[in-house]
Amino acid sequence: MNAGHRRRGIPARLRSTLVALPLLGFAIVGLLAPVLAPADPTANDLAASLLPPSAEHLLGTDQLGRDQLSRLLHGARISLAVTAAVLAISLTVGVVTGTIAGYLGGPVDRVISRVIDMAVSLPGMLVALAVIGVRGPGIENLVIAVSLWAWAPYARIARARVAGLRGSPHLDALRLLGAGPGRIIGRHLLPPALAPCLVYASTDVGAIVLGVATLSFLGLGIPPPDPEWGQLLIEGRPHLASAWWLAYPPGIAITAVVFASNLLGERLATGDERPSILRWVLPAGLRAPAPRRSPARPPTTVRPTATSATSATSATSGGDGTLLRVRDLSVSYPHRDGRRRVVADVCYEVPRGHILAVVGETGSGKTTSVLAPFGLLDPTALVIGSATLEAGTHRRQLVGLTPPQRRQINGRHVGVVFQDSLAALNPLRTIGAHVDEAVRNTGRGGRRATTRRVTEELLRLVGLPDPVGIAREFPHQLSGGMRQRAQLAIALAGEPELLVADEPTSALDVTVQAQLLDLLARLRDELGMAMIVVSHDLAVVTRLADTVAVMYAGRIVEAGPLTTMVENPVHPYTRGLLDAVPRPGTAPGTRFRTMPGRSGTGPDDADGCAFAPRCPIAVPECAQEQPTLLALAPGHRSACPRQSGNATLVVGAAPERDGA
Ligand SMILES: Nc1ncnc2c1ncn2[C@@H]1O[C@H](COP(=O)(O)OP(=O)(O)OP(=O)(O)O)[C@@H](O)[C@H]1O
């Protein structure tokens, strides 16, 4: 309720209820007309022709002696029936058509959008006249005629709503949990598409009632003797001067319904009491503020990808405690000159129970490198290389999987926590509904109460106080840290062997950040789960990582055990990252060392070392030849030949296990 409403003294909800009263009356009278009407609306009594209102006939009689009140009440019934049928058809056709167009996009969307545009631009009354002219009057034809022009605005609204949601991260999160298109459309797209359509429908009631009355008035609607309001108007028109009770009541009834419907629609569309009205018509789970689009780059859908070098790696994968082994991974996106690689020849592996941190500046390819194996990049991404996962008892090659194959892995063997928790969660659903769905998708659910018990256990596991209460909250009602914990609970629903956390703490303050990192470390210890944690902050990952891979311009430039990387880094870029980390005990006013130059170039943008232009120890040769990752010690590799001493070339740029 806003201040303006308060000032006028009537609460907004009450004002909306008052505005809706004529519509409510219309619906009640329409439904109960046979009970409320004192007489048969079609029974003639010529002896009682054109009687004025009296105790016997409260609204008088018409020229055939029929009770006018009974005809008015039955007229409401017919208007209500036609309006309800038209709305049901228009809403169903419009919302389904618009949702399909918005979800599929591409040529289907273009064709459906043109059809919608045409339907909207046609003059509705002319279409109705043409249809009734061909098919003749009658309730059925009237419904068809009005529906033909009434469905298009619903389709347009639903299409716009769904198209806006199509690329949102919470849909990606759902796909990750194994939800198929049917479930995504039915449970996550149709409800938000329906909500604005219902608001529009409240305005449409008036337009339909008026349209039906107009057609009847023109002799093309409900044929006599059935008492439709437009029909009553035309019958009363010749007697306007002598028998006012014939035309005025139906005229007032039509005006009241049209006004009420327009006012209510306007209030719902602009007012802040929208949720209170939708509470009458929408189930509880659908009431929440409109979803907010994330400014963050959304990791989107899976698509089959090209692959190479698969057999060579699967032959060596597994059996040695390695959960995920990535080899020669390259990712490219369409570019004006063809395709541009953003990640090149990336190799890493994650042993069971270990935490690998991938660090680097923005645009260095961290997120791309860790999400590519799981098909979580933009559909235009082309992924080449190999990624083998020891999922359960099977070894699976991840690159090139189809979406159904991926659903067997993502959400079950692999859980993902996204950076922007608000965007990754559906704003229309409670936290409990999110986790319930994840629990059910991974096959751990049962009856409603059983599923909810698992949900509450998961919320407790991630350290959320009062799991029962939190389960009932919507995402926007939680703090950023709590939402990240909720995302973690969703990711843990499938009891994954690997958790991928993409900048899980970047939007949080340092205290909450530390708590979340401690939680991740505790979960690793308690559940024995391996993790890949992406961060641009080397200091953050030192709290929990076992190994660190440093990326620059789409390539790994140094990788090794945490202690080596922190205490004895050899690549100038890693040193630069460490120098930029604030250290306890640093004297106030001390300036941190920063790296000159710009980040974010691609792996193929330079002939030689991409870091050379910013490197304090670069020599002219550095800019001429692409450096290769060299093994310096077991598990420690660097791509700076100037610092590598007695290094040896790592065959295929593959990493070695620490201690191997
Ligand atoms: N859909 C896309 N189309 C084209 N280029 C993309 C797309 N997504 C990412 N990129 C490019 O890929 C490169 C690597 O992006 P990525 O998100 O992996 O970097 P990052 O190191 O994770 O950065 P950040 O920390 O900012 O998330 C960037 O140059 C980015 O512009």
From TrEMBL:
Positions of region (Disordered): 289-321, 582-603
Domain ABC transmembrane type-1: 76-265
Signal peptide extent: none
Entry membrane topology: Multi-pass membrane protein; Peripheral membrane protein
Keywords tagged on the record: ATP-binding, Cell membrane, Membrane, Nucleotide-binding, Transmembrane, Transmembrane helix, Transport
Superkingdom of this protein's organism: Bacteria
Transmembrane segments: 78-103, 115-133
UniProt KW Ubl conjugation keyword: no
Domain ABC transporter: start-end pairs: 324-578
Keyword Iron assigned: no
SMART domains membership: AAA
Biased composition (Low complexity): 289-317
Principal cellular location given in the protein's record: membrane
Localization per record: Cell membrane; Membrane
Family the entry assigns: Belongs to the ABC transporter superfamily. Belongs to the binding-protein-dependent transport system permease family.
Name this polypeptide is given: Peptide ABC transporter permease
Organism: Plantactinospora mayteni
